[in-house]
Amino acid sequence: MSLIDLMGIGRRFGHITALDDIDLSLDAGEVVALLGDNGAGKSTLVKILSGAHTPTSGHIEFEGRRVRLDSPQHARDLGIETLYQDLALIPRMSIARNFHLGRELTRHAGPIRLLDHARMKEQASLALADIGIRIRNTDEPVSTLSGGERQSIAIGRAVHFGSKVLILDEPTSALSIGETLKVLGYIRSARERGMCVVFITHNLHHVFQVADRLVILSRGRKASEHAREDVTEAQIASEIMREHSPV
């Protein structure tokens, strides 16, 4: 049984069809690369998976039962975590606070509940170290971190809090070579822990380092789907360019 099944998914904005009749299954323990040129429909599909948009046709099944993802919080409650390029991190807030954002730990001080900063710092450090992420001091504000380190915080948070699906939108677009290699390593780690990772990128070299399956969208439809070992980078690049060419 698939973790998520998208069946006949369509999305219209007035007279504009952004997605049309998309069928897609996502399985636990795999990395699925979502590919296509600008305007292919990737962003709209991600927003449907993350609960930001609802489809105008078709339906979604999660772990075998039909669901309606009517808000990002609902998707998150099911275990679908989406990391956009801005990562939804608060730069001036500490690493530990960002790690627990929306899931803060508290303690009682008489009748008052206070944030338990000590426990949050300890839990964040241990959880990040558990997947190979070393942070100097979780009291530091996120603004002091590099782009790769910020990505690691967001990915580590999703892994620690039991996300089942991790959607990454262009996670390596502004990173150095070294940081990119680390983030690709974190993606592999998430897969090894049984998560499904949906990887949106324009960088085919990165895709072929981590993806198990490649799904190409074109003009709002699913153009093709391939196992990584069945195709080459050149073939996929050629297909994306062909699909994007004027009809």
Secondary-structure element pattern, one letter each: EEEHEEHEHEEHHEHEHEEH
Rg from Cα: 19 Å
Percent of residues in helices comes to 25-40%
Mean of all residue-level pLDDT scores: 89
Q: What amount of the residues lies in strands?
A: 25-35%
Shape descriptor reads globular
SS-based structural class?
A: alpha/beta
Main sheet summary: 6 strands, mixed
Amino- and carboxy-terminal Cα gap: 37 Å
Low-confidence stretches: none
Please give the number of β-strands.
12
Output the strand order for the largest sheet.
6-9-10-3-11-12
Question: How would you summarize the topology of this molecule?
Answer:
Blueprint: E1 4-13, E2 16-26, E3 31-35, H1 42-49, E4 57-62, E5 65-67, H2 72-78, E6 80-83, H3 95-99, E7 106-109, E8 112-115, H4 117-130, H5 147-160, E9 165-169, H6 177-192, E10 196-200, H7 204-210, E11 213-218, E12 221-227, H8 233-244
Parallel strand pairs: 3-10, 3-11, 6-9, 9-10
Antiparallel strand pairs: 1-2, 1-4, 4-5, 7-8, 11-12
Helix pairs in contact: 5-6
